[in-house]
Amino acid sequence: MHAVDRVIARRLDSGVPLVGEVSRYIISSGGKRLRPALLLLVCGALGYRGEQHHNLAAVVEFIHTATLLHDDVVDESTLRRGRATANAHFGNPASVLVGDFLYSRAFQMMLDAHDMRVMEILADATNVIAEGEVMQLMNMHDPELDERAYLHVIRSKTAKLFEASARLGAVLSGADGALEAACASYGQALGTAFQVIDDVLDYTGNAQELGKNLGDDLREGKVTLPLIAAMRLGTAEQRALVRKAVETGALEELERIVAVVQETGALEVARDAAAAEARRAMSAAAQLPSNPHAQALVQLAASLLQRRN
């Protein structure tokens, strides 16, 4: 990861000072670096001995960071990772344009691998992520959204880059088709579990631990699994309360909404869904050669179920 950070620092260099300032602001804000770590772990598990894993790990972090810059503008977010979002600090225009810079820089860096398969994976992933963003926008304030549609969005918007990161590790390592598919399944399942737990934390955590404002998802009209389950399991009165909050995005009843989500067992439904995805990830990781890197992949999936921020 230190080698990846050195690549990131070098490739953020730009002749336009604001580009580097905004990029460094968000990249240095304490993110978990899960996607690049996933690529490195898969490469380690499969015995990769080259150097492109550092470059491509930085690429996936740049793509992820670009999506964050654009997301925060779309969502009008003001807090991420415990401090002001880039759009709150620098303004929307700078955030959008620097996000564009990071996307284009990522594609420049992909060329260093001299591998069309690598380009295909990352280009497809970036396209699917954009589609997921649009689908989520279309689903805003829609109380009729069901679990299947919700999972489709998060597997496109969030899990796709996890999937691509793991698949890239397999491709770099020269893995056969079956092993590449297992790595991709691991990444998709891990990313799905990560997002479901993130949605649970919006109703169980606190702003200081999460680094974001509680209730942001509801304010934005995002229909997440805890709300879907609460509307399915609650009384008529509880369903009406949640439905109205989803439709309006009003936070006046946030405390009551949180109580409904907790009282109906909706959080347990969401945690069970995340646990099922974590088990799917661990099953996929079991197909990799037995070594400390593969064991770390299993532990990473298991650790999501204890995630608190």
From TrEMBL:
Determine if Transferase is one of this entry's keywords: yes
- Cofactor(s) this protein cannot do without: Mg(2+)
Q: Which family does it belong to?
A: Belongs to the FPP/GGPP synthase family.
| Domain of life, source organism | Bacteria
Listed name of the protein? Polyprenyl synthetase family protein
Q: Which key words tag this protein in UniProt? A: Magnesium, Metal-binding, Transferase
Pfam families the record matches? polyprenyl_synt (PF00348)
Q: Does the keyword Metal-binding apply?
A: yes
